[in-house]
Amino acid sequence: xxxxxxxxxxxxxxxxxxxxxxxxxxxxxxxxxxxxxxxxxxxxxxxxxxxxxxxxxxxxxxxxxxxxxxxxxxxxxxxxxxxxxxxxxxxxxxxxxxxxxxxxxxxxxxxxxxxxxxxxxxxxxxxxxxxxxxxxxxxxxxxxxxxxxxxxxxxxxxxxxxxxxxxxxxxxxxxxxxxxxxxxxxxxxxxxxxxxxxxxxxxxxxxxxxxxxxxxxxxxxxxxxxxxxxxxxxxx
Length: 236
Known about the structure:
Order of helices and strands: EEEEHEEEEEEEEEEE
Helix content: under 10%
Number of strands: 15
């Protein structure tokens, strides 16, 4: 195993634009009734991408051998790996509606050079945290184990209310959802990381969106913001 320190990241405050209203009755008000942007409540740290090279994991022979075998230039599915790190900071204000959910959603893609197509699309190979039932995740180092999977990831016991959950692992549209529960508010900083498996000799990207919901009485309001530029995953 290898410890990966997840540093504090420079943050940008997000202005999340109203998506829709939804009421239990299913009534949708006209577009003119849209709420103002949600500001001052959610900030995004990063994202930061670091290529996972044989040199990076060289002190663990098994990991080095795995990275080198996946990078085989003669293989049709030759792969490169990237460690991607985010943080989401949420502010709870007594005078404003409470955050009910906050979502971080990614769309991974790859373009090959010239007219060639990428051998496969990037996927979230491993994600951490996987599930949490406490208010805030551990801020200690993440650990990469065999085949570049995060280790020490625990699923909550059946029936436990989940306040943070990784979603769509091993797909090209991964993400996390933070949920308010009767025992856990949405507040503070959540550090999130994933290993992305991408085809070599391509330009890989991660488009990033952040969504949130707040409840005002019986009205659930949805907001969303997309980063103007995708994150480029450094080529190896």
